[in-house]
Amino acid sequence: MNGKKGSSIRIDIGLPSSAVPRETARKSGSGEGDEAITIPLRKWMMEVWQFAREDTNRVTFSLKVGLACLLVSLLILLRAPYQVFGANIIWSILTVAIMFEYTVGATFNRGFNRALGSLLAGVFAVVVIQVAMSSGHVAEPYVIGLSIFLVGSITSFMKLWPSLVPYEYGFRVILFTYCLIIVSGYRMGNPIRTAMDRLYSIAIGAIVAVLVNVLIFPIWAGEQLHRELVGHFDSVADSLEECVKKYLSDDGSDHPEFSKTVMDDFQDEPAFRKCRSTLNSSAKLDSLANSAKWEPPHGRFMQMFYPWAEYVKVGAVLRHCAYEVMALHGCLHSEIQAPYNLRYTFRTEILDATNQAAELLRSLAKDLSNMKHSLHTSLLKRVHASTERLQRSIDLHSYLLTLSHDVCDCSTKPPAKLSHVSSLNGTDADGKKAEAETYHETMKKQQRRLHSWPSREVDDFEEDMSGESIPRMRALESTAALSLATFTSLLIEFVARLDHLVEAADELAKLAKFKQEIAC
Amino acid sequence: MNGKKGSSIRIDIGLPSSAVPRETARKSGSGEGDEAITIPLRKWMMEVWQFAREDTNRVTFSLKVGLACLLVSLLILLRAPYQVFGANIIWSILTVAIMFEYTVGATFNRGFNRALGSLLAGVFAVVVIQVAMSSGHVAEPYVIGLSIFLVGSITSFMKLWPSLVPYEYGFRVILFTYCLIIVSGYRMGNPIRTAMDRLYSIAIGAIVAVLVNVLIFPIWAGEQLHRELVGHFDSVADSLEECVKKYLSDDGSDHPEFSKTVMDDFQDEPAFRKCRSTLNSSAKLDSLANSAKWEPPHGRFMQMFYPWAEYVKVGAVLRHCAYEVMALHGCLHSEIQAPYNLRYTFRTEILDATNQAAELLRSLAKDLSNMKHSLHTSLLKRVHASTERLQRSIDLHSYLLTLSHDVCDCSTKPPAKLSHVSSLNGTDADGKKAEAETYHETMKKQQRRLHSWPSREVDDFEEDMSGESIPRMRALESTAALSLATFTSLLIEFVARLDHLVEAADELAKLAKFKQEIAC
């Protein structure tokens, strides 16, 4: 561990402080390493401080573990309790160290696993020892050996069974408690006494762990789940806005290669990274909801049988919205791109729809966060109205998407609603023609880039299709223009899914009895 | 646990065998429950048998755990070793039960955690005890208590640090080993002796666990990782085909509601469900690769420093392909759908591109599975050629996508390549017109369905926009037609990403020194 930490610090030095080596070099002989050590140490302390400040629960949790261990140790360190409980009390330390979990629910859950596991193992061990003892002195070790083998095999097989996987820890407890009781009972005699001693020292450890966990600054899994879900709403809204903003501002000139971007992990898109973590959140939400079920009513969640499972459902619907954001993001990093000015044409409508959708998401997040239930009718209306406008705009300008056909003389088509397009080009009357020209120019400029797809085996294709290169170019142009249609379709689909999200959020609000609020 | 199993069986009865109750009812009095118990018992046995047969490693693992426990127990059950090792040997049972993991690599990893944790805790405990003893009789318990508190807090804080999370188990081991040694040392005297006794009994347990795990039918994490990745290639290929097939065969009439489909978890799309598990596989691949790093060269992977990390990278690129499949799937379940005959128009090209892409994926999977490295030039060429055909076809027929404009009299446009469209409609000369008619008819038929979007607040909209209902309808029609463009764009983007997948697979093949094979 120490080695690991040291090496990570050393990497940290190299990056930001290029001026440091020179300064230390000047000092040369005396205290050469001192400065070099002090600076990373201070940096490291700052990092730890930041980490602790980010979520003070981390510090609370650490101190609580220390306290629980100390309390259990007192049972041995002080003379009076030691004389009462004896050396077996050592098992309560083990129990605290293994059972103490981050949240109250998880601790209860683990405690339940440990208690039930120990109990089952204890009962089974006592039964087997009685059988073994009555089977005679010679057969006894064989019976015990066989039973250990069977318990080991059966518990290991059962913990692989999909529906029993969450109780994996319980099976481990059964296995080692059984072995410990039966083996030490065999050697030390009086197995029932051994079992009882061990069970009550485990119980003491469990009680200490639970009391410290619940009574001193409890960290509730329910609260964590609640916050987690609110955070996911926000991160989907953020990444939607980020993605669309990037799509509209991107002029396509400085696109890094896709595979490089994948490996770099999209460093310049923090919101997207957060959104991707939303996609991988199902396991975390499940486990938090699972823990929250074990918790008694507390804080803001005073209702009995609070619908924690509903949080998981809302999370699932939100994830389905996030998949659309992933697809939008795929469009953004696609190798075939609509030319910049075509994207600019629909800029207002796309931005409007995006902002409305993000606002709806944030409003849902805020309501959830405040445990209020308001009707989102007006916001939904506005989102849908802005999507309608986007659809209609795409519809009216759809000839732009198929413009590259010289076969079709479409100039009879009137430029129905091109206010911002014409203002872009600076012409008034023949706006569409100018647009078409700019479009073709851009395509020519992007020619190199378009030809980078397919990025491999291009030469082979060139040979194969040298005769057809012009229609091929045209097909690429058309596909490039249609990529805008793809982007907007995905955006519209995202909005369509918001309906279901609102529905799921309403259902949650109803079941969790959030405060009703009249919509403005 | 028993209760749990029982209830799951009871649910199983209800579903398939509706004839059973009548039969048992006839028997009434005598042995009423017998039949009812026998049948679910047999069913349950069959399920367990199936589960075991699916992956015989599960049985192997279970028997190995049983064996390891038995071997360690022998040290106590037999008189001779017990007289040598004494009661401390009980710790080796605990070690086996806690350390024995499914794969060799994971066991090594856990063993390393346990060994290093125990060692650090032991050393630290001995140092603290020396300090405490030299600080005088009064201060001793305070020093020990403080040290326990500090160790508990610091290890708990450290295991929350993101880069140290994988070593969580190691920190737990440090904590409880430290407490056990220092506390029992305080009460029983001679802490160094206690520490040493405990360390060697832990070492014995660890050695038994490792030997049984490695020597008897070892389950290698590397092998699992290899197979897992191959499986993911296949599942992406399967779900791509399934999705496209469904998209082309779906006439849009019997669409279940989206939210219902989300909740049903897409029961009728097994391949999609598999693909979705591919998306959530990053954690599993990471942990398998992490375990595999601990394994010595073995079986097919005899190379030193086998590039297991490269598997994770290929998995990441494959996941980026799978995101496109998710988007395609989103299109399939989108509420705004291209009319059936429009989808039918591009049927041949879409199917061709899909089949070629799936074939490429399967070929990659096969090569990976056989650890061969062949150039996929010809397959890539064919995939790209088929995508080109699709692009060109979309390009030539793109007027179909924007057909609903009555303002533009596009009938001057010649039906450039409409062989299968006209054969579909049974007309020869005026194929495009006929197509346009059918298109409008279908739109009319789908009118009700299109209006189901937005599914909420529709009435409010109706009031707001009663004057504009015709342009709105048109916008929806246009968006519906463009949804086909979306689908094909996503398909093309999927193919574009295959390039990067082939690159990543080539890189893996190079680093892992797969057998070179000349492409056919």
From TrEMBL, chains A, B:
GO terms for cellular component: plant-type vacuole membrane. It is a multi-pass membrane protein. Keywords: Ion channel, Ion transport, Membrane, Transmembrane, Transmembrane helix, Transport. Its main location: membrane. Pfam families: ALMT. The keyword Transport applies. It is found in: Membrane. The chain crosses the membrane at residues 61-78, 84-104, 116-136, 169-187, 199-221. InterPro entries: ALMT. The keyword Transmembrane helix applies. GO terms for biological process: malate transport; monoatomic ion transmembrane transport. Belongs to the aromatic acid exporter (TC 2.A.85) family. This is (wild Malaysian banana) hypothetical protein. It comes from Musa acuminata subsp. malaccensis (Wild banana).
